[in-house]
Structures are given as structure tokens and as C-alpha cells.
Design brief:
One of its GO terms (molecular function) is L-amino acid transmembrane transporter activity. InterPro entries: AA_transpt_TM (IPR013057). It is found in: Membrane. The protein is mainly α and 404 residues long. The protein has a single domain, classed as Up-down Bundle (Amino acid/polyamine transporter I). It has 13 helices and 2 strands; from the N terminus they run H-H-H-H-E-E-H-H-H-H-H-H-H-H-H. It has a two-stranded antiparallel sheet. Helix 5 crosses helix 10 and helix 7 crosses helix 13.
Length: 404
């Protein structure tokens, strides 16, 4: 997501965007930190789970179309929470907002875990002590990253931090090319023999796939920004096909190179003495630092609007500092990148990307509730969404608890 780089763009008011620019924006919305864990996702489910990657992409593309149809029902709809309001009134808007902000919050947590993992990979360290408290390697780097990021969270007007679409797309391309280079040129090779199907790991696989494709909260903004809004379905098609090619390439490369030994982030497997590895890791590290503030900003703004307590500048800074501090505490407490991502995908991405679009569409469009192929498809997607959500959430919580 990235919901991870996905949602900050809701803060921008783009007008008259071209088809190409909207495609770039949309691809960026779907190109987040999920690409690092896509080989791990494939290793959990086996080669045949690539079919599920395509299925998840198709379902999320279709639910994106449903959001567009919801917007067409009322021209005043501008944001994802507005669709919740149109369907279910004020309670619907609050519900959608809560799930969107929860997803953003966990993406911010993921950023800090990612920083800790990759900095420790580059610079193995024994840590330091503060009084009687010992802070070891990975945790030390999380703390240092949080300190470095902190001043950026105080900015209300994010400017370039808020939305660097081309940079996000380029980062994904660079990562795939670097991994391919390590395999083809730096001697790792593509020699792993791997299993076709692992039923036990499928809930984790599906949860991680769903995390990668949930950019739905940004779709209304992208549609409204276009010169020609009727072209938005074509934009969605381009975005999902391109993202699927990128994710699929990374999944296949990583799994062929490292097999079942693949780690939660493919960068953690790469040999550190290679230039290609350093490029991949530095590319990975830069994005969270520049995007953390943009990810957390919508939550901060919502808190500020809901309470007069944070009306003054000093109180707003304090609140944003506390927000970062809570994400750091959570990252330090559950520093398991893949399984936090799996939980986010199963619980929040399923809700935001599958359940809410279907339920809102059925509520807004009465004709869709008449028996026919459309209703059958939507009910089927809802059943699948609820099933994956329950299984994936339980599986990810179980894995997190096991590692605590």
C-alpha cells in the first residue's frame, strides 16, 4: 500500500492530469515496499501461487472499477471516505476513514522495520547503551531512522515529500534490475529447485499479495484529477498489468535465486560485497525516509481536525512526535516485516481493497442487487475476501506471537 507509498497523494489536489501522468501516479500507488517481500510470498505458497497473484490483481482491478462506478453515482464524491458516506452515511465515512488510517499507520511501522533490517545488513553493529538499557543492532537502526525522520513529520505542507510518483516507480524498476543482476552477473545464479504448492503457507501468500495491490484509497483522487475521467478504467488496467509484471518478475527472480531460504525482504539475501546489492539497499532505504511523513500526515491532520487541543503549532508538533514514537515502539515490539505486512494485507487491505468497494457498490447501486452475473461475481469476491481475511489474519497473528 504502498498503501505503503499509496495514500499520501490524497492530500494533493491535482487538476487536469493527462492519461500518462495518471498511469504513472497509479503505478506508484501500487508500487510500495511490498515488492521486497513478493519472493518470500511465493516461497510460502510455491510456484502455483503465481496463479493467485494474477487472481488477486484481477479482483483488485475489478473492485477499483466498482469504486469508479460509486463515484459516478454522485459528482460530489472526491475521496474514498466520501464513498463510505454516500453508501452508509456518516457512520460509513467514519468506518472507511478508520480502516484507511489504520493501514497508513501500519505502513509507517513497516517503514521503520525495513530501515532497521536493511541498515543492519549494510552495517552490522553491536548497538549501544543508554543507562541500563541496551539497544542492539537492528533496534538501534530503527531508533536512529526515527530520529532522522522526526523533523520531516513536523511539516504540514509536505511539498515534494508528499508525492514523488516517478521516483517511486523508478525505485521498483531499479530493485528488480539489481536483483536480476545479482543472479545473472554476480554469481548467485537461478538454480533453486522449489515446490509447486504449499497449502499451509497460502494464507500468508495471499495476505502479502493483497498488501501489494491495495491502492484503492488513492483511486478516487486519481480519477478526479484526470482531464478525461472516462479513461480511468483504462488507467486501472495499465496500472494493474504493469504492477503485476513487476511483482511477478521480482517473485520469480528471488525464488529461483534463493528458494526456501529467501528472507522476508529479498535485499537481506543479497551479497553485501556487490555494488548491485548496495544500490538495491540504498534505493530501499531512501524511500521510507522521504515518504514516512507523507504517510503519517493524513492521520495527523485527522487528529488535528477532531480536537482543538492540537490547534497550536507547538501542540501539533508534540502530537506528530508522539505518533512517530508510537510507531517506533510498535516496530521495536514486533519487528517481523513479512508477518506485520501479512497482517496488514489480510485485515486492512482486504477490507479497503475488496470488502468496502463491494459493499458500497451494492448499497449505492440498487440494480446491482438484482440476481445476475454481476451479483454472483460480487458475492463470490465478498466470500473470498472474508475467507482470506479471516484465515490470513489468524495465520499472521499466530506467526507473530510465535516469534515474540
Amino acid at each position: 500500500m504502498e498503501t505503503q507509498s499509496q495514500l499520501p497523494s490524497t492530500q494533493l489536489q491535482l487538476k487536469g492530469t493527462t492519461f500518462l501522468r495518471t498511469c504513472i501516479n497509479g503505478i506508484n500507488a501500487l508500487s510500495g515496499v511490498g515488492i521486497l517481500s513478493i519472493p518470500f510470498a511465493l516461497s510460502q505458497g510455491g510456484w502455483l501461487s503465481l496463479i493467485l497473484l494474477s487472481l488477486v490483481a484481477a479482483v483488485c482491478w475489478y473492485t477499483g472499477l466498482l469504486l469508479k462506478r460509486c463515484m459516478d453515482a454522485n459528482p460530489s464524491v472526491r475521496t474514498y471516505p466520501d464513498i463510505g458516506w454516500l453508501a452508509f452515511g456518516f457512520k460509513g465515512k467514519i468506518m472507511v476513514s478508520v480502516f484507511v488510517y489504520m493501514e497508513l499507520y501500519l505502513v509507517a511501522v513497516e517503514f521503520l522495520i525495513l530501515e532497521g533490517d536493511n541498515l543492519q545488513k549494510l552495517f552490522p553493529s553491536s548497538g549501544f547503551k543508554v543507562g541500563s538499557v541496551s539497544v542492539e543492532g537492528k533496534q538501534m537502526y530503527m531508533v536512529l531512522a526515527a530520529v532522522f525522520i522526526l523533523p520531516t513529520t513536523w511539516l504540514k505542507s509536505l511539498g515534494l515529500l508528499a508525492y514523488v510518483s516517478f521516483g517511486g516507480v523508478l525505485a521498483s524498476v531499479v530493485l528488480v534490475l539489481c536483483v536480476a543482476w545479482v543472479g545473472a552477473v554476480d554469481g548467485v545464479g537461478f538454480n533453486q529447485r522449489n515446490e509447486l504448492l504449499k497449502l499451509q503457507g497460502l494464507p500468508t501468500t495471499l495476505s502479502l499479495f493483497l498488501f501489494c495491490y491495495c491502492g484503492h484509497a488513492v483511486f478516487p483522487m486519481l480519477s478526479n484529477s484526470m482531464n478525461n475521467k472516462t479513461q480511468f478504467p483504462k488507467v486501472l488496467m495499465v496500472c494493474f498489468v504493469t504492477s503485476t509484471m513487476s511483482y511477478g518478475s521480482m517473485a520469480i527472480l528471488g525464488y529461483l535465486m534463493y528458494g526456501d531460504n529467501i528472507k522476508s525482504q529479498v535485499t537481506l539475501n543479497l551479497p553485501t560485497d556487490k555494488t548491485s546489492t548496495k544500490v538495491a539497499i540504498y534505493t530501499t532505504l531512501i524511500n521510507p525516509i522521504t515518504k514516512y511523513a507523507a504517510i503519517i500526515n493524513p492521520i495527523a491532520i485527522a487528529i488535528e481536525e477532531a480536537s482543538r487541543l492540537f490547534a497550536t503549532r507547538s501542540m501539533a508538533i508534540l502530537m506528530r512526535t508522539l505518533l512517530l514514537f508510537t510507531t517506533l515502539i510498535l516496530a521495536l515490539s514486533i519487528p517481523f516485516f513479512a508477518y506485520v505486512m501479512a497482517f496488514t494485507g489480510a485485515f486492512l487491505s482486504v477490507t479497503n481493497g475488496i470488502l468496502i468497494p463491494c459493499l458500497c457498490y451494492l448499497k449505492i447501486n440498487k440494480s446491482a442487487r438484482k440476481f445476475g452475473w454481476e451479483l454472483v461475481v460480487i458475492v463470490g469476491i465478498l466470500v473470498m475476501g472474508f475467507s482470506v481475511g479471516i484465515l490470513g489474519t489468524c495465520s499472521s497473528i499466530k506467526e507473530i506471537v510465535k516469534r515474540l
